[in-house]
């Protein structure tokens, strides 16, 4: 998630728009305090609403946990997990290094 200041809006509007087109959330701040979040306008936003789309984006970009995202979306964890699955967004994200450690624990 990229942060823009109010001044950046004048000088870097194109960056904010390109980020939104790429599906990225952005936070706009004034004097260091968040003023608003720019949420990409996509089919998911139209279909599910702002809070669910925001929860999905924040979870997908690993800014909030599954539990917090589900709470923001007004869903149970299992409902939100199912929703993420429908969108093709993985709930469990294991790095290659973590996966190697797990496999090594099972032996040769």
List keywords for this structure.
108 residues, YefM-like fold, 2 domains, three-stranded mixed β-sheet, 14% strand
What does it look like?
The protein is α+β, with helices and mostly antiparallel strands and 108 residues long. It folds into two domains: 1-38, YefM-like domain (YefM-like fold), CATH 3.40.1620; 42-108, no CATH class. The protein is built from seven helices and three strands, in the order E-H-H-E-E-H-H-H-H-H. A three-stranded mixed sheet has the order 1-2-3. Helix 5 (66-73) crosses helix 6.
> What is the string of helix and strand elements?
EHHEEHHHHH
Report low-confidence residues grouped into runs of 5 or more: none
Question: Strand content of the residues, in percent?
Answer: 5-15%
- The proportion of residues forming helix, as a percent range, comes to 55-70%
Helix/sheet category: alpha+beta
Q: List the quaternary state of the chains.
A: single chain
Report the count of strand segments.
3
Gyration radius (Cα, Å) is 17 Å
Q: End-to-end span in angstroms?
A: 41 Å
Strand arrangement, major sheet: 1-2-3
Q: Supply the number of structural domains.
A: 2
Largest sheet entry:
3 strands, mixed
Overall spatial form: globular
**Overall pLDDT confidence:** 87
Please count the helical segments.
7
Give the gist of this structure.
This protein is α+β, with helices and mostly antiparallel strands.
Topology record:
Blueprint: E1 2-5, H1 6-11, H2 13-21, E2 26-30, E3 33-38, H3 43-48, H4 50-60, H5 66-73, H6 77-87, H7 96-105
Parallel strand pairs: 1-2
Antiparallel strand pairs: 2-3
